[in-house]
Structures are given as C-alpha cells and as structure tokens.
Design a protein that fits this description.
By secondary structure, the protein is of the alpha/beta class. It has 2 domains: about 140 residues, NAD(P)-binding Rossmann-like Domain (Rossmann fold, 3-Layer(aba) Sandwich); about 180 residues, NAD(P)-binding Rossmann-like Domain (Rossmann fold), CATH 3.40.50. Helices cover about 35% and strands about 15% of the residues. It has 13 helices and 12 strands. It has a 7-stranded parallel β-sheet, with helices on both faces. It has a 5-stranded parallel β-sheet with strand order 2-1-3-4-5. Helix 1 runs parallel beside helix 12 and helix 5 packs across helix 7. The protein binds nicotinamide-adenine-dinucleotide (NAD). The site of nicotinamide-adenine-dinucleotide has 32 residues, from helix 7. The site of nicotinamide-adenine-dinucleotide (NAD) has 32 residues, from helix 7.
C-alpha cells in the first residue's frame, strides 16, 4: 500500500483525457476523487480531508486559515489552475504547507481563445441564432445583427499571461485597436502584444468590447460596478474569464436591463457554480460557460502534468520549485521532508 494519499477535490476535469498521468501518480500515492460542499470551510473541511497528504484543489471550496490549522497531514496543496484566490497562502506558509499551481503558460492559449470565442458568440448572437434554427425559425434571421470587430476598440483589463494573448489575437487577428489597463505592465511590453496602455477611465469610456483578465484580489473584487458601468459606451460588450467576483453582478444585471451593456460572455460567475434560475440567464444576450476556460485537450494535459509533477517531486523529497506560490515556505520550513536541492527541473515527459 502507498504511504501517501492524494485527494482530488471537486474537480471532474483533473486528468481528463490523460489516464496515463493518473496512473503515474498512482505509482506514488493512493488517489481519491472527492466532492465536498462548496461552502465547507475550516475545521469541517479539515475533517473531510483528514488523512490526505496532498490536495488537488479546484475553484471550490475555500481553504482558509482554520483549515490549515486543523489539517495536520497536508504537505502540499496543488491548484488545478492558475488562480489561488480560494487558498489562504499566508496560513499555508505559517503551517509549513507548500502551495503549488499550474504555470500560466499552460492555460494561456486555451483561456484567451475562449475569451475571444465568448465575445464573438455575444456579438454575432451565435447561441440565439442556433436556438432560432432549432425552433424552425430560420426565416427570422433578419433580426440577428451583430457588428464587426475589425476597427473597434477592445479594452483589456489585466495584461498578464492571458490578457496579453487576448490583446495579440484582437490586434493581429481582427485589426482591432487594443487599449489595456494594467498598472504593473510597462508600455513597451504592452506594445509588444499590440496594446496601448491607458488609465481605467479611458478604457471604460472608449472600448466597444471590455475583456477582463485580472486575478481576484482585494483590489479587484467588484472592480467593475455601477460607477464603472456608467462610464462605459452605450452598447458595450463585456467578457469575463477571470473570476466572477471581479464584476458586481447586480450592477451588471442593471446595465443589461438598461441596454448600457448590449451583451456579456462569462466563463465565471459570482458564487459559481450557479443554477438554472440565475437572473443573468434570463437575458438572451448573455452567454455563460461553466468555467471551462482551460478545458482544451492541451490545457488540461498541461494542468494535470504540472500537478502530478509537483506532487511526485515532494514525495521524492524535492521542492516543486517552479510551481510554488509560496517559495518562502522553503526558508521557514515545510512539513514535508525535502532532501533534494531546490532548482528547476524539466516537466515529466
Ligand atoms: P497573470 O497574473 O499573468 O495576469 C494578471 C494581470 O492582471 C497581471 O498583469 C497584473 O499586473 C494585472 N493586475 C493585477 N491587479 C490588477 C488591477 N487591480 N488592475 C489591473 N490589472 C491588474 O494571470 P493570468 O494567467 O493572465 O490569469 C488571470 C486570471 O484568470 C487568473 O488569476 C484566474 O483567476 C483567471 N483564470 C481563469 C481561467 C478559466 O478557466 N476561466 C483559467 C485560468 C485563469
């Protein structure tokens, strides 16, 4: 029997299409797939995950300070994704737990391409058109009118790994003018992906399409609310593949009702997963996908490879250096016994 146990929590897509990677992991550890309530927290969550040395974490539940205090066997928590907003990194570090995530480039193309797909689905009313045809209403095609992306202004909020790829696609593929708001990016880096840095107000005022790619932090929580919608162009299209909580949902609902926002393409929704009664689903110009941004064959394989590699490294006594979100834990002391030197290793073949 393996000494180590891995819990894959609330993730249906971990290892999907890559059974060889799960098999590889099973050579080192027992692997269980578990579902827990998305609201489970702290001590109760620690109880539910008692006995596991590794957690592969989805976007739910939230792993808070109480969880790390009470789950004493955990050595490493690996996010099956990029965003680590549902993990209290500080508490993990204090408790000697390593936090790993998927390196951004593994998901970059997949998420960027979905962001553009969502924009086009909304602008060209793809979903609505399909419903018409299915309902035998081909003759109503005259009411399906979109607009060209060519020559329009696209505002990218957050010009990091994914936002920069979105900017490239719009500027090079669509000949759109790309404006970007990101206080941490240099103008020359923005120019390299075809974007011009502007302040947030300018972006809100001038963009025909606004596409959101910031991490969820204290400063980005509800960063797009009533005030921001009021500054936007009438008929603007909103796309969000970052985190639902970056947009104030009530404000978005009002902006859709008033026509200020002509449509929204969302891969993430505040409080997800949402049910079929969610108010945003009542709008025919809103397209929602269930957080599938990284769900391409290539994206999912890259994600599973990263998580599996990080876990196996720790079992072998090596630090999972390039995946670590809290490298300072190596200085403070980890619960895992790491015997091999720190350093970069190539991903597994
Ligand atoms: P990243 O860290 O490379 O880029 C984020 C960018 O946002 C950075 O350039 C940063 O400077 C900028 N930023 C931070 N705070 C800002 C602020 N207040 N205003 C403007 N810009 C700000 O991250 P990434 O890999 O591009 O991913 C972005 C986010 O997308 C992730 O944090 C994650 O939440 C989300 N994501 C979603 C999916 C999905 O499946 N839908 C998949 C991967 C990532």
């Amino acid at each position: 029997m393996n000494k180590y146990r891995v819990a894959v929590v609330n993730s249906k897509s971990f290892g999907a299409g890559s059974p060889d990677l799960i098999e590889k992991l099973r050579q080192y550890a027992e692997v269980d797939f578990l579902d827990v309530g998305k609201a489970l927290r702290g001590r109760q969550l620690a109880e539910a995950l008692r006995g596991y040395h590794f957690v592969v974490a989805s976007v739910t539940p939230t792993y808070d300070a109480e969880f790390f205090k009470h789950q004493r066997e955990l050595l490493l928590i690996a996010r099956h994704g990029i965003g680590v907003d549902n993990i209290c990194i500080e508490a993990a570090t204090v408790e000697g737990v390593m936090v790993a995530r998927v390196p951004g480039f593994k998901e970059r193309d997949a998420v960027a391409e979905l962001a553009v797909a969502l924009a086009l689905a909304v602008i060209r009313k793809v979903s609505l058109s399909h419903q018409l045809v299915k309902a035998g209403k081909w003759s109503e095609r005259g009411r399906i009118i979109g607009f060209n992306v060519a020559g329009k202004k696209v505002g990218v909020i957050g010009l990091g790994n994914i936002g920069s790829r979105v900017a490239e696609i719009y500027s090079r593929g669509f000949n759109a003018q790309v404006l970007a708001y990101d206080p941490y990016v240099k103008p020359e880096d923005a120019a390299r992906c075809g974007a011009r840095l502007v302040d947030l107000d300018t972006l809100l005022r001038e963009s025909d399409i606004i596409t959101i790619h910031v991490p969820l932090t204290e400063s980005t929580y509800h960063m797009i609310g009533e005030r921001e919608f009021s500054k936007m162009k009438d008929g603007v299209v909103i796309v969000n593949t970052a985190r639902g909580e970056v947009i104030d949902t009530q404000a978005l609902t009002k902006a859709l009702e008033s026509g200020k926002v002509s449509g929204a393409g969302l891969d993430v929704v505040e409080g997800e997963p949402i049910g079929s009664e969610h108010p945003l689903l009542a709008f025919e110009n809103v397209v929602i996908t269930p957080h599938i941004g990284a769900n391409t064959r290539e994206g999912l394989r890259g994600m599973a490879e990263s998580n599996v590699d990080a876990i196996i490294r720790v079992i072998r006594g090596e630090p999972p250096s390039e995946y670590l979100v809290n490298p300072e834990v190596l200085e403070r002391g980890t619960r895992a016994k790491l015997t091999a030197p720190s350093g970069k290793h190539p991903p597994p073949g």
